Amino acid sequence: GPGLAGLVGSRERMEYAFVGRTVNLAARVQTLTRLHKVDILITEALREHLDPRFVLVPMPAEMVRGIDEPVVTYAVRE
User: Fold this and answer.
1) Fewest beta carbons within 10 Å, which of 1, 11, 36, 66?
2) Model's pTM, two decimal places?
3) 3-state secondary structure of 25
4) Is residue 39 a contact partner of residue 33, using CB atoms and an 8 Å limit?
């Protein structure tokens, strides 16, 4: 999804960052890997574009900080 990339900060401390809703969602989904005890989770939006040869297991939808609706994820098995 869309995001904004660039240098942020002050003259004394400048760093490269990528921010936006997509980045926030990715970070939240990453934390769900611990909850579901899986290595890779993907969102419904990515699943729609993924090659059907991937084996996916639906995970329970979870509420995550900053997102109003439960997030549907899938564990990638193969």
Assistant:
1) 11
2) 0.80
3) helix
4) yes
Q: How far, in Å, CA of 57 to CA of 3, rounded?
A: 28
Does the pLDDT at position 55 exceed 80? Answer: yes
Q: What is the DSSP letter of 40?
A: -
Residue given tokens 């439960």 in the structure block: 70
Contact 19, 1 (CB under 8 A): no
What pairs with residue 42 in β-bridges?
74
Backbone Cα Rg of the chain: 15
Average pLDDT for 27-46 = 95
- The answer to whether residues 20 and 50 touch, using CB atoms and an 8 Å cutoff, is no
> What type of residue sits at position 17?
A
Cα dihedral 44, 45, 46, 47 sign: positive
